[in-house]
Amino acid sequence: MNSSKPSADWNNTLHEYPQDLLVAQLVSEQAEKTPDALALQSETKSLTYRQLEDRSNRLALRLVSLGVGPEALVGIFLPRSPEIVVAALATLKAGGAYVPMDLEYPVSRLDFMLRDTQLRVLITDRRVSGTLPSGDWHVVLVDEGLPEPAPPQPLPPSSLTAENLAYVIYTSGSTGQPKAVQITHRSLLNLIYWHRRAFSVTSADRASQVASFSFDAAVWEIWPYLTAGASVHFPDDATRGSARGLRDWLLAEKITVSFVPTPMAESLLALEWPSQTSLRLLLTGADALHRYPPANLPFSLINNYGPTECTVVATSGVVLPDDRAHGDPTIGRPIDNVQIHVLDDELKPVPVGTVGELYIAGAGLARGYLNRREQEAQVFVANPFSPLPNARLYRTGDLVRYLPDGQIAFVGRTDEQIKIRGYRIEPNEIINLLNEFPGVETSVVVARADNGDDKRLVAYVVSSDQQLTRGSLQEHLRARLPDYMVPAAFVRIDALPLKSSGKVDRTALPAPTTLNTIADEVYIAPRTVAEKRVVSILAELLGLEKVGVNDNFFFLGGHSLLGTQLIARVRSIFGVELPLRKVFDSPTAAELASEIERLLVAQQEVPAD
After folding, report:
1. Among 238, 265, 296, 446, whose CB has the most other CB atoms within 10 angstroms?
2. Are 567 and 560 in contact (CB under 8 A)?
């Protein structure tokens, strides 16, 4: 074992950055320099910097008239589009902090967020506003039009400083409720200036916006580029869910820098790429990276790590094709003005090569959790390594080890928190709801990868109710949780296995099988040749012994990345191209088989050349 101490130079990350101009002012500067340059573009809309400035100014004036100012929280409930950036920029211009709210969240979760934040204003549009709960906040509909100021009115002076909040993002909470992470302008500016410097961002860059706006990765997909005069491009949902579709879009749109979550990045790395492409950087993160880039990849792969509590990114590093000596790719080194400490249970540094818990310090740290002082005190602790008063460390709960060259290798988690496809999930939030269901005595939720590397959520339920069905449990959870938090399988067990300490022994939980898995009310076996083949494909992809023709691909644990594999299998076996949209619209084995049969008939009717 290497007993040497970590080098102090590894945390010598000081890099001065301006804090006199905040994000909104930096974007306005770019609008003044290059008003006719492209700022935002989607399939249906594009905005120049002049148009972005005009729209955001007019919306900001409306927000100010409603009382928005420093520390005021403004909810944003809009589809992924240029309009969502207009809303966020307007909030910042008004002096407020924006709170992204996902369209896919159930009403009960949205209601909790709205009341927990005590929002003053909520920005939405007519298409989606009907799904929101009612409350005493002001609702601003961006598609109703804003009054044209004549002449244009300047925004009133603001007392906003770098210490004020810029945005608040909710993450899964261990107490059964989501918790809101508060990020200041100072932390956001550090991310922006590091990002622009580290990746040589210029006004010529064309960046992608792939992440959900409620996922903090969207922060660095937008602001580093708009403050540099570059353009941000939005693929549609079908494109961003397909590796082949996203690759083709990146090439066609001449994207130069793109962030994609780890599972998608691994799928992209497995595809063929032309030797010449505009893409120069593929940034990834949000989950453990297992794949190295091929030697002939025409762009660089950058692996990044960082919890929401540390402003998107805390460590970053290039992944080289031949750097496999230490197993999986590392998570790189700390970014500007961030320090990484690998500590034991007594908050003492562990030797290089020894596994310890990752603690983060520096400019990226969040202010804390909104209305969660007790939880905040558990993870934001005093920093014994800093001479500055009130300096803090953030306890990540992640296990890592320093390598001899100062890079950091990710090992795993200290607790039961789960990461699936880039989403950070507190299983207690799911467990609390499961235990509310009639007939459920107790439960535990884990992530399993019994077949290959693709993880899925599995719930273990102690219940004597023989009428319990998978459908009823999923329906109960789906009413309160986003889809990615609903388990794909439910296993009935007599009792939770325990360690001598009294904690649940997760290693002793059985793998889901046909015999122990809670099924739906009626199993219908495949009836046609097409159904038999589709059921076989689904069972193999999802690691299941049995799939009924009415089983829903997504309820069984499928997702867009597995959907692309499903399409590839269908192409190989049937010789037809099944659209990804059809997988979403017709997700049962019977529906998929029917569509495949229709495509086969249509293919035969097409005359040969």
Report:
1. 265
2. no
As beta bridge partners, residue 349 has 343
Average the pLDDT over 586-607 and give the result: 82
Please report the pLDDT score of residue 149 as a whole number.
53
Residues 152-188: pLDDT tens digits? 667 777 789 999 999 999 987 666 678 999 999 999 9
450 pLDDT more than 70? no
Distance CA 278, CA 250 (A): 8
- Is 53 in contact with 28 (CB distance < 8 Å)? yes
Is residue 155 helix, strand or coil?
coil
All structural domains of the chain, each given as residue ranges with its CATH number in brackets, are: 22-151 (3.40.50.980), 186-415 (3.40.50.12780), 426-508 (3.30.300.30), 529-605 (1.10.1200.10)
Taking the CB of residue 76, how many other CB atoms lie within 10 A of it? 25
- Report the 10 Å Cβ neighbour count for 592: 24
Q: For 195, what's the count of Cα atoms within 13 Å in the CB-facing half-sphere? A: 30
The structure tokens 């793109």 sit at 258
Residue 431's H or E segment, with its range, is helix 427-434
Give the whole-angstrom CA distance, residue 421 versus residue 559: 9
| DSSP symbol at 20 | S
d(CA 570, CA 576): 7
Which regions of 229-355 does DSSP assign to beta strands (E)? 231-233, 257-261, 281-285, 300-305, 315-319, 333-334, 338-343
The tokens for 430 are 């799911």
8 Å CB contact between 40 and 52: yes
d(CA 533, CA 473): 28
Q: Is the pLDDT of residue 451 over 60?
A: no
Chain position carrying tokens 């993880």: 455
> Which residue did the predictor score with more confidence, 36 or 556?
36
| pLDDT of 263 over the 50 cut | yes
- The secondary element (H helix, E strand) that includes residue 428 is helix 427-434
Q: Can you give the length of the chain in residues?
A: 609
Which DSSP helix (H) or strand (E) runs through 145? none
